[in-house]
Amino acid sequence: MELPPLPSTIPPFPTRGANQAPWSANADTARNILKNAYDRALAVLRQEADPIRLKFHQETIMNDALPILESMEESQEAEQIPIVWMEEVAVMLGFMVLHLRAAINGVNDRYAFEKGFRTILYILIGHHPM
């Protein structure tokens, strides 16, 4: 199963009307944290990253970004953050975790293959290749 492509970044909040107050500092800060976590994870996915870096970003999304989004949901009514925006970001973060997990598994498979190949060479030629 092919994962869908990832959007380039977390969307901005919708523009507020002239008679509405601007977004609160808390809402802006939370959105910026989500955006930064997503953008950094996407940048790592586009590189030939090692499993440790990929896992770090996966855990950042799961342990930092998702709880922030949950907190935003709890204050949604007071902050007037559109539910549609939060749902879109939740889907984006979920797919980011799936992409990171797929990349981790792919990298681990490649490293396992390389390690296994080096072991076979060691057995065949009698010394450990570099």
Q: How many whole angstroms does the radius of gyration measure?
A: 20 Å
Spans where pLDDT lies below 50 across 5 or more residues: none
Q: How many angstroms does the end-to-end distance come to?
A: 36 Å
- Give the oligomeric state of the chains in this entry, treating copies of one chain as homo and distinct chains as hetero: single chain
Strand content: under 5%
Largest sheet descriptor: none
Order of helices and strands: HHHH
Please state the average pLDDT score: 85
**Could you say how many structural domains there are in total?**
1
Summarize the structure.
The protein is mainly α. The chain has helices at 25-45, 51-74, 76-79, 83-125. It has one domain.
Helix-strand blueprint:
Blueprint: H1 25-45, H2 51-74, H3 76-79, H4 83-125
Helix pairs in contact: 1-2, 1-4, 2-4
Task: Name the descriptors.
single chain, 130 residues, mainly alpha, 4 helices, elongated
Any overview of this molecule?
The protein is mainly alpha-helical and 130 residues long. It has one domain. Helix content is 71%, strand content 0%. The chain contains four helices and no strands.
